[in-house]
């Protein structure tokens, strides 16, 4: 009689090995799955970067390249280095446009944001009938054509038949030709900018206010805080990120203002007055590039404007970082 001995350890190892081999995925499939998971996020965001590269980055780089040339669109292009920038810094028209741009920005942005914050606070706390209607009505200036707005405000500030001069005449004030002076033209353009954007910013502030729990205001009232104290110590800190956003966006938009000065004085063309009293940087850029067909000098103005916008973005980054650090 023959007896066959078996090794239990060997059999067990063989079973484990066979089971493991059956349960294991092929290495190639695992590698393909891993690469797919890693590349998927980049594939999702790739269209944005492709569009930005074509319509954003390339025009920016090409503008800087053109600024180094005496560029004639129908003639020769001569490389002149940084001569356009030297001409720019010595050009009184550039500095006049820069002063006009910042002057209009300051006059329009500060009152506009203050008014928007006040209206948002009022709409958030007041018990109004048809509250949604009044909130949506704030978008009316935003969706109104800029050309129509310019026509209306030109009539309001008109020297001979303007509504504002008629009201001032009731108090014995002589007629004022707003567009004839630098300060007056700033007021007219700033009023147009304020009218167009205050409703949009009001809705942004209102959305931020509605995100603040009302229990916080009730607790502040119980602690004896007045309405003024609640506004400055509760509302303003809670809205700080939105306030920073609106300030920076208003800054960037104000530095690029173009349509309002172009339409407010159409008889003077691209100079916005005989003395260029309301010509902004964007309008000066358009005049040199597409009015005088001096593309090299116009591109230099565009590069300078881009640098100013980058500085505003840097301020935004500084303020945002500081806000997060305080939290």
Tell me about the biggest sheet?
2 strands, antiparallel
Strand content: under 5%
Helix amount: over 70%
E-strand count: 2
Number of helical elements: 15
Counting helices, strands and paired strands, the structural category is mainly alpha
Order of secondary-structure elements: HHEEHHHHHHHHHHHHH
Q: Gyration radius, to the nearest Å?
A: 31 Å
Mean pLDDT: 82
Give the overall shape: flat
Terminal CA distance reads 87 Å
Strand order of the largest sheet: 1-2
* Low-confidence runs: 1-22
Multimerization state: single chain
Provide structural commentary.
This protein has helices at residues 8-23, 27-66, 83-89, 92-125, 131-137, 140-143, 146-156, 163-169, 182-210, 214-222, 227-238, 240-255, 259-264, 281-291, 295-326, and strands at 69-71, 77-79. The longest helix has 40 residues, at 27-66. The relative contact order is 0.11. By secondary structure, it is an all-alpha fold. Helices cover 74% and strands 2% of the residues. The model is unreliable at 1-22 (pLDDT under 50). A two-stranded antiparallel sheet has the order 1-2. The chain is flat, with a radius of gyration of 31 Å.
Brief descriptors of the model:
two-stranded antiparallel sheet; disordered N terminus; 2% strand; 327 residues; 74% helix; mainly alpha
Question: Would you summarize the structure shown here?
Answer:
The protein is an all-alpha fold. It contains 15 helices and 2 strands. It has a two-stranded antiparallel ribbon.
Describe how the helices and strands are arranged:
Layout lengths: L7 H16 L3 H40 L2 E3 L5 E3 L3 H7 L2 H34 L5 H7 L2 H4 L2 H11 L6 H7 L12 H29 L3 H9 L4 H12 L1 H16 L3 H6 L16 H11 L3 H32 L1
Antiparallel strand pairs: 1-2
């Amino acid at each position: 009689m023959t007896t066959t001995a078996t090794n239990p350890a060997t059999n067990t190892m063989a079973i484990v090995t066979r089971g493991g081999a059956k349960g294991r995925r092929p290495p190639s499939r695992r590698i393909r799955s891993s690469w797919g998971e890693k590349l998927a996020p980049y594939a999702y965001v790739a269209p944005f970067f492709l569009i930005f590269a074509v319509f954003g980055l390339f025009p920016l780089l090409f503008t800087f390249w053109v600024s180094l040339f005496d560029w004639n669109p129908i003639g020769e292009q001569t490389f002149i280095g940084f001569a356009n920038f030297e001409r720019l810094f010595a050009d009184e028209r550039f500095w006049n446009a820069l002063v006009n741009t910042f002057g209009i920005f300051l006059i329009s942005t500060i009152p506009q944001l203050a008014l928007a914050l006040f209206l948002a606070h009022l709409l958030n706390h007041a018990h109004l009938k048809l509250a949604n209607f009044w909130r949506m009505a704030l978008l009316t200036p935003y969706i109104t054509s800029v050309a129509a707005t310019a026509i209306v405000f030109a009539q309001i500030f008109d020297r001979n038949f303007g509504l504002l001069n008629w009201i001032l005449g009731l108090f014995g004030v002589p007629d004022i030709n707003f567009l004839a002076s630098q300060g007056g033209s700033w007021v007219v353009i700033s009023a147009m900018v304020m009218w167009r954007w205050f409703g949009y910013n009001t809705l942004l502030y209102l959305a931020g206010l509605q995100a603040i729990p009302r229990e916080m205001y009730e607790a502040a009232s119980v602690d004896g805080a007045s309405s003024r104290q609640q506004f400055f110590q509760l509302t303003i800190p809670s809205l700080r990120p939105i306030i920073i956003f609106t300030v920076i966006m208003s800054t960037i938009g104000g530095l690029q203002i173009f349509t309002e000065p172009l339409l407010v004085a159409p008889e003077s063309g691209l100079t916005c007055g005989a003395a260029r009293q309301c010509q902004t940087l964007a309008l000066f850029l358009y005049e040199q590039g597409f009015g005088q067909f001096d593309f090299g000098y116009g591109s230099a103005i565009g590069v300078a404007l881009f640098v100013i916008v980058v500085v505003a973005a840097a301020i935004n980054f500084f303020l945002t970082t500081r806000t997060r650090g305080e939290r």
